[in-house]
Each structure stands twice: as structure tokens, then as C-alpha cells.
Amino acid sequence: MRKPVVDYTKLRPSNITSPEYRHLLLLSGWIVYFILYILTENLIPAEKCYPVESALDHIIPFCEWFVIPYVGWYLLIVISLIYFALYNVENFKSLQKYIIVTQLVAMAIYIIFPTRQDLRPTEFARDNFLTDIVAALYSADTNTGVCPSLHVAYSLGIASTWLKEKSASVVSKTVVVVFVILVCMSVSFIKQHSVVDIYVAIPMCLLAEVIAFYGFYKKKFKRDNS
Description:
60% helix, mainly alpha, 8 helices, globular
């Protein structure tokens, strides 16, 4: 088995600020995000949000099968962060910085320009386990704070990080990219987001890419021009 680059068995609350472990402090960004998420969800009513939709949204059919990659996204985040924390701390830091940038930008947009989508079906054409999961998602997550889509933003950041991971095989990278594409499609097919939310996430992701991977591109530029 491959040996981790950091020995986390010695991690204690007292030494988390040490050079060996302080990269884990970046995970505190999730705490800030969840606080902001709860506040925006509860303090901004749906009637104060601007509806977002496009003509393409009404062409894309609802398909409950896409709930599989949509939910699998949560696992993708956890697996990716754990892998990089174990085997490539620099990529862990870059990915977590990417996530923090997209979280802060998205939350600022949600507050300044609150949005909602009214695309969710009122009833499902089929009744099965997958539609039950979609119904559970609808009840757990409101239809507000949708543009830009963080599902798309995190996914693109994860794909970008894996494509830069030297230890990952071509097959692994291909699997991640294909899965990320399915995740990005899933937000529209299960009617959690408008296509507009996907489009708006792209410039936000470009900003996060520059900030999080500045060091990577700087080294690459020097190497290519040496």
C-alpha cells in the first residue's frame, strides 16, 4: 500500500497549527460556508429571489437517473480531499482554496442577487427509489440560492486538480472527468438548477482556477520558457 506523505496518526488539536498539519486548517472554510448557507436559506425568502430559467431548461426532460451522479458528487468531494491530504498536500491546499473561492463568491452573489428556480416538477411521472431520493433532496434543499451552481463549481475544481495529479493514471483521470460531466448535467436533469446556473459558474471557476493554481501555472510557464 502506498505510504501517505503525512503521518496523521500524530495529529492532535495541540499541533494542528504545526507546519506538518496546518494545511488542514483550510477545511475550516466549510464551517464558514455552512453558516452562510444556513443564514441565506433562512433569512432570504423565496419571494425576494429572482427566478432564473432559460428556454433550454424546458427542453431538457426530468430524468431521475441523474440523481445518482448528483448524490455521488458528495462522495467525490470527500474521496478527493482525503486522497490529496494523504498523498499530495499541495494539491489538497489548491483544491481547498479553489472550493473556498467559489464558496465565498457564490455566497456573495446569493446575498447581493438572490435567485431561485421554479423548474421542479410538482409530481413525478414514475414512482421509484430514485424519485424518492429526488423528493428527499427537494425537501432538504430549497429552490433558492441557485445561481451560480456550486455543484458545478466544485466538480470543475476537482476535475482540474485530478488532471494535475501526476500519480493518477490516465484511466483514473478519465473516470473523474466523465463523472464530473455527468454531475454537471445532473443539476439540470433533476431540476435542481437552471442551465443558466451552469453558465454563471464558469467565470467563477476561472477566477478560482487562477487563484488556487497560480503557483502551478507559474512553474509551468517558467518550465515551458526555459
